[in-house]
Amino acid sequence: MNALETYLTKLIKAQGPISIATYMGEALGNAQHGYYMKKDPFGQKGDFTTAPEISQMFGEMVGLWLGVCWLNMGSPDKIHLIELGPGRGTLMQDILRAMKVIPGLLDSIEVHLVEMSPVLREMQAERLKGLITPKWHNRVSDALDQSNGGPLLVIANEFFDALPIRQFQKTGDGWHERLVCLDEAEKLSLQLAPVAAPESIIPPALLRADEGSITEVCAIGENLLSEIAEYIQRHSGAALIIDYGHDRHGTGNTLQALKQHKYIDILSDPGDVDLTAHVDFQRLKEIAHICETKTFGPVGQGDFLKFLGIEARSQTLLANATDKQAKDIQTALNRLIHKDEMGDLFKVMAISDNGLSGIIGFE
Ligand code: SAH
Question: Is the pTM for the entire model greater than 0.85?
Answer without folding.
Answer: yes
